Predict the structure.
Amino acid sequence: MTPTTDTTTGTTTGTLDLGPQALVVARLVAGVPDERLGGRTPCPGYPVRHLLGHLAGLAVAFRDAGRKKLGATTDTSPEAALPDIGPGRREDLLRVLDELAAAWRDPAAWTGKTRAGGIDLPGAVAGAVVADELVIHGWDRLTSRAVAHDTEAYGLRAECQGSVLAYSGDSGPCEALTELTSGADLFLCEADIDRHRESEGSPQVHLTPEDAGDAARKAGVREPYITHVGPTLTRQTATVRAAAAFGGPTRTAREGETIPF
């Protein structure tokens, strides 16, 4: 962060280089295939195409806010219409993201007043807002689904720059788990029980090692990692049994381990 003094107020604020995070977002935008534009995102009511449309609108608005070129692009509320990304607009968004970062490299962007979304605000505040937006949307997709359990529980799927991490959470075999793990590079999966217990009833609310391996195999997972191993199993035994059902390399998750993928 670089300090900048606002000559109109005498106050000193920090400036941020938005370039690195704008590049992260640009790579994500470029990596989304057309067939994924209708996919869901963590934002309710916003499939991928509308989230990209939101990014396109805010990139233009905050580029012009940084340049202090106030007008239609900075006066329009983001709620004025449902944003969309039309033909050719993804290429436009990549260009505007670069222009956005360049605009906010100028220390003058962080001083005085500006406007975005029809709201007047200090330059330093506007810069912080757009930095937050770029970080928030730096994830490609983070998806959660309610999974089979005896209390409220969710599995997760995180997608970033073409890679996919799936996590079962506490879950029994279910369609939601299959959907979350489809084609995942890495699947962090529970293997809590040695065998299914009649007392659990139906549906089952935990996975055996065989369930974990079978789920990974059916979903086309590249590599499963076994975690949340129950007291009637050892981690090594659970991993070996899951690997047999998966039919490929299977690892044991370990506390503090960093896994590049």
Observations:
- Helices lie at 19-31, 48-67, 72-75, 89-103, 123-136, 175-181, 209-218, 235-246.
- The chain is about 35% helix and 20% strand.
